[in-house]
Write a structure and sequence with these properties.
This protein is α+β, with helices and mostly antiparallel strands. It has one domain. It is 20% helix and 20% strand. The chain contains eleven helices and 13 strands. It has helices spanning 7-11, 39-44, 77-95, 187-200, 245-251, 280-283, 288-295, 331-334, 375-378, 380-389, 418-421, and strands at residues 64-72, 129-134, 178-184, 205-216, 227-228, 234-235, 269-278, 319-320, 323-324, 346-347, 350-356, 362-372, 396-406. Strands 1, 2, 3, 4, 7, 10, 11, 12 and 13 form a nine-stranded antiparallel sheet that branches.
Length: 422
């Protein structure tokens, strides 16, 4: 096998950049997935906004994403609640394929701004889901102020994520008081949703950062094929699926007794967002065998290097030439649930390409999104292990990071997040 070309060697040294736990998932047996919806069916699909849990978590992952993190610019609790109420109404309308407001984009007075921006006129719902979350700053700001009387309701697990080894975070792409995750099978529908929610929030919130994504990198249902990331490997093989009720209860949904301060979060989850820049050009120079050894899977079928098919469990004890057939620093080994007390997560990541950087390289990678019951056990230890020992880290650079508490779904007559303010 040809020697691996190190990114450090190509770029003249430097520190290995940070990655995300489970970003190129481990092996976990599941049934073969039937074919996904046709494009026409996906565009016609719609998902209920209201329910026990927010849509956009176990919903079959759509093809497009618009994610936005926002800062609250008011100190008024009443204005914040009014915004969440208005967002609930608009989100429920848009997920049905309706305009954001009751009047619509062209039906109102010519002397007033319309209550919908209009770029979705004539387009179906396209499977739109809108998911809202609360960041640590909503409970205590950077100076420790309790702006909204919520400090005593901040869950212990809802803290700014630690700075992992070799993180290279951009503060303008990290953190936030609130988040909106809009997923759809039409990019214009996802953009329309976030655009109108931001418009409704003018004067109460401001956008801190946002990210567009395409080509889901995870499957959240057994009805979906496993997708590929920009390194060309199948991604999300071991993802928790919507059909795994027991796994969702164990690893995704917050329990009523999980946190004394966070009883309001029961039935919700925690969303981890990490922006992973891939060193695409360096990766593309690696021999195929080295790429497979780094990941621990074959590039074509996604099967573990120990043999079998995509969903076969890896055999980490199988010997190979000069060591185990799955190398000690292979990604699939480092993040496997057996290495972390069985911890699993539900991922909804997306590819992104944001043009080129200042050096002429592709500004591209994976916008990692994971839902976990408790980030202290379901994400942080896995990420630490990956950052310290995973061979894949040489080709990743984490430039954004955030954690949000995702409240349970809004039942009829409720607004999203009402349990926090009750």
């Amino acid at each position: 096998m040809a020697p691996r070309v190190s990114r450090r060697g190509l770029l003249g040294g430097g520190v290995a950049a940070a990655g995300v736990a489970g970003a190129f998932a481990t092996g976990r047996a599941t049934a073969d997935a039937p074919a996904a919806m046709t494009p026409a069916a996906a565009r016609a699909a719609s998902y209920a906004f209201r329910g026990e849990h927010q849509a956009g978590i176990v919903t079959p992952a759509q093809d497009r994403l618009h994610f936005a993190a926002l800062d609250v610019v008011t100190d008024s609790r009443e204005e914040l609640v009014e915004l969440l109420q208005a967002w609930t109404v608009a989100a429920e309308r848009m997920t049905k394929g309706q305009a954001a407001g009751e009047i619509g984009p062209v039906e109102g007075s010519l002397d007033l701004p319309p209550d919908d921006t209009g770029e979705a006129i004539g387009l179906p719902a396209s499977g739109l889901t809108i998911t809202f979350g609360f960041g640590p700053g909503l409970f205590r700001d950077a100076e420790g102020r309790d702006r909204f009387g919520l400090a005593d309701r901040q869950p212990e697990a809802l803290q700014t994520l630690p700075h992992f080894p070799a993180d290279n975070l951009d503060p303008t792409r990290s953190y936030g008081d609130l988040c909106i995750q809009a997923c759809a099978d039409d990019p214009q529908i996802a953009v329309h949703a976030v655009r109108n929610l931001v418009r409704i929030g003018f004067g109460t919130v401001s956008v801190r950062w946002s990210q567009l994504g395409f080509g889901r990198t995870s499957s959240t249902s057994t009805s979906q094929d496993t997708a590929r990331n920009l390194f060309g490997f199948k991604d999300g093989t071991a993802n928790v699926k919507a059909e795994e009720d027991a796994a969702l209860a164990d690893h995704v949904w917050v329990g009523g007794d999980d946190d004394a301060n966070g009883a309001w979060l029961a039935g919700g989850s925690y969303l981890v967002a990490r922006r992973l820049n891939m060193t695409i050009e360096v990766w593309d120079r690696q021999p195929l065998g080295d790429q497979e050894n780094i990941v621990g899977r074959t590039k074509g079928t996604g099967a573990p290097l120990s043999g079998g098919e995509e969903f076969s469990e890896p055999d980490f004890a199988m010997p190979g030439r000069g060591g185990p057939i799955i190398p000690a620093d292979a990604h699939v080994r480092i993040v496997h649930p057996d290495q972390h007390g069985g911890a699993r997560m539900l991922r909804r990541g997306y590819n992104f390409v944001d043009g080129s950087d200042s050096l002429g390289g592709l500004n591209a990678g994976l916008f990692f999104i994971a839902y976990v019951r408790d980030p202290r056990t379901g994400f942080i230890p896995i990420q630490n292990a990956m950052a310290k020992n995973d061979a894949l880290m040489e080709y990743l650079k984490t430039t954004g990071s955030a954690l949000f508490a995702i409240p349970p779904g809004a039942k009829p007559g409720e607004y999203v997040g009402q349990s926090l303010f009750a």
